[in-house]
Amino acid sequence: MATNTDIRPGRHVIYNLHVHLVFVTKYRREVFNDEMLTRCEEIMRSVCKDFEADLIEFNGEEDHVHLLVHYPPKVALSNLVNSLKGVSSRYLRAEFTGRINRTTMHDRFWSGSYFAGSCGGAPLEIVKQYIEQQKRPS
């Protein structure tokens, strides 16, 4: 359930937008260790801040990461994703050259695809019922 702190004001909008993102490494290579996941979280938290978004939750395994991001409506989700993947790829490849075999990953860190799922608020069926029950003007 959304709390009052999840609802944010903008200049012409009040919003509560959350997205669950999943990024997979190229060819699902198992490159992440705890140190890399910690650094990846730091990088992604910084990128989110640049977009005036908040990285609410982050975790991952050897070949993928999950993010829960609270973002403003002025942000195009595809732009945020491109920055998250691009910036983290550059930093991680530069800082962890011993763990990342650039040849086997064809000089790419992340897969070109990703998962994005909207989340938060009431279930869709409840929202649908609420809208259906609104009174129409006579």
From TrEMBL:
Domain Transposase IS200-like as annotated: residue spans: 14-134
GO biological process terms on file: DNA transposition
UniProt cross-references to InterPro entries, sorted A to Z: Transposase_17 (IPR002686), Transposase_17_sf (IPR036515)
Record-level Gene Ontology MF annotations: DNA binding; transposase activity
Protein name: IS200/IS605 family transposase
Pfam family, one: Y1_Tnp
